[in-house]
Amino acid sequence: MIYILLLLIILIWISCSIGFFKKLLMVFTKTEKDPLFTKLFSGDLDEHRNALNEIIELRDVGRLKSLSKHLKPISEASALILDSRIGHSDYFYDGRRYPHFAILKLDFVKSTEQCLCNLYTMASLYTPLKEERLGHIKVVEKTKLENGWPDYELCICCYCQQNYKAYYREHHGPWYKWEKI
Predict the structure, then answer these.
(1) Which of 17, 36, 146, 149 is buried most, with the most CB atoms less than 10 Å from its CB?
(2) pLDDT at 44 over 90
(3) Which domain of life is it from (predicted)?
(4) Residue in 136, 116, 27 with CA at minimum distance from that of residue 63
């Protein structure tokens, strides 16, 4: 009897050490099967950064909602890995990838049923050209200043038909200020 108990304990220990129970749990939770979830908690800076960039680009509301159920641990993991490894973590090297915007996007999806186009007004990383190419908006009109520089573009969201004015701006590089109309 004692040998059976000892054998059982050894088998449980071996199973735990190879991650059997973790794999079993992953079968039951959709989020943890998502590769983004794995990247976010990998502990690797590049993996984590890539996962945040994917969240920024992601339009699949189902996946975003699934990830947003774990907003607090994702936010904490981001703070730990980014703040400890990047001196100024408000942006990534190219100046366009805002890690904190990925967290804001997950919070937005978790707390509202509004269209994702509402995020245009919250970050300067969206451009009308790219959003139109991806099929998210339709540029209705482009206006230019007298000197030929672009002024703004009138856009309409392809999902909810919200109208926007996207003003062309420059600082360290080109960006757009989005305004609902």
Answers:
(1) 36
(2) no
(3) Bacteria
(4) 116
For the record, the structure tokens of 170 come out as 């420059």
Handedness of CA 165, 124, 79, 45 (dihedral sign): positive
Query: 64: Cβ–Cβ under 8 A, 6 or more apart, which residues?
Result: 55, 58, 105, 106, 109
pLDDT at position 157 is 98
pLDDT in tens, 53-104: 999 999 999 999 999 999 999 988 888 877 655 544 444 444 345 678 899 9
Q: Write down the mean pLDDT value for the chain.
A: 81
Please give the Cα distance from 108 to 164 (Å, whole number): 19
3-state DSSP of 31-66: HHHCHHHHHHCCCCHHHHHHHHHHHHHCCCHHHHHH
Long-range contacts made by residues 93-96, C-beta under 8 angstroms, separation at least 24? 95/172, 95/173, 96/125, 96/173
In this structure, what are the phi and psi dihedrals at residue 92, rounded to the nearest 5 degrees? -90, 180
What strand order describes the sheet that includes 174-180? 137-144, 150-157, 163-170, 174-180
Tokens of 55: 């969240």
**How many CB atoms sit inside 10 A of residue 136's CB?**
19
Rounded to two decimals, the pTM is 0.73
